[in-house]
Amino acid sequence: MVCIRCKMVVKEALTKLGLPYTTVELGEAEIPGSISELQLDQVRGALLRSGLELMDDKKSVIIQKIKNVIIELVHYSEEPLAVNLSAYLSRKLNYDYTYLANLFSEARGVSIERFFIAHRIEHVKELLVYNELSLTEIAYKLHYSSVAHLSSQFKRVTGLTPSHFKKLKDKRRSMLEEL
User: Fold this and answer.
1) Residue 5 belongs to what domain range?
2) Which of 39, 58, 117, 165 has the fewest CB atoms in 10 Å of its CB?
3) What phi and psi, each to the nearest 5 degrees, are found at residue 96?
4) pLDDT band of 176, cuts 50, 70, 90
5) What is the pLDDT of residue 50?
6) pTM of the model
């Protein structure tokens, strides 16, 4: 949802400024030709007013692309990874994985793998809160090798088992209904 809104905000800002664009994806917009410094400042200002920022240095752009690929993979991809994450990122971004990993860790203070796992666990939490799928179905949907693997990773990251997390959510809901 957030990704779609961000893209809409960027498209609207570019349109209001009279700047044609060919594509707007999460973290990047393609504008044919060149734009002036004044136009660049106007885009920067419009994005800041919407809570977004313009990234124009190469390293920030690469880091954002890494994040975008992982978010897309975790939240929007239905297909399991055919190769490991490092190979996937290298192929997708056309950079050596060691370079990507070092750049990401230096800037974010966390490894790419931990960022990936954190997003997977956040997605698990969302699905648990929606209460539409069983833990087995969630494990299958998010391409975990087993429910046990999902559960142990969930506990390692959150300190709770998935079932305890779900009970806490249900308990909060019932307490709110009593008010």
Assistant:
1) 1-54
2) 58
3) -65, 135
4) very low
5) 84
6) 0.71
**In this structure, which amino acid lies at residue 86?**
S
Number of separate domains in the chain: 2
Are the C-beta atoms of 104 and 111 separated by less than 8 Å? Answer: yes
The strand pairing partners of 83, in sequence order, are none
What pLDDT does 170 receive?
Answer: 65
- Residue 1 has a pLDDT of 36
Concatenated DSSP letters of 86-149: HHHHHHHHTS-HHHHHHHHHHHHSS-HHHHHHHHHHHHHHHHHHHT-S-HHHHHHHTT-S-HHH
CB 165 within 8 A of CB 128: yes
Q: Give the CATH number for residue 65.
A: 1.10.10.60
Domain boundary among 54, 70, 93: 54
Scan for tokens 């690929």, then name that residue.
69
Q: Can you count the helices (H) and strands (E) in the chain?
A: 9, 2
**pLDDT surpasses 70 at 117:** yes
Same domain, 107 and 177: yes
**Do 122 and 135 share a structural domain?**
yes
Among 132, 138, 89, smallest CA distance to 113 is for 89
Higher-pLDDT residue of 153, 33: 153
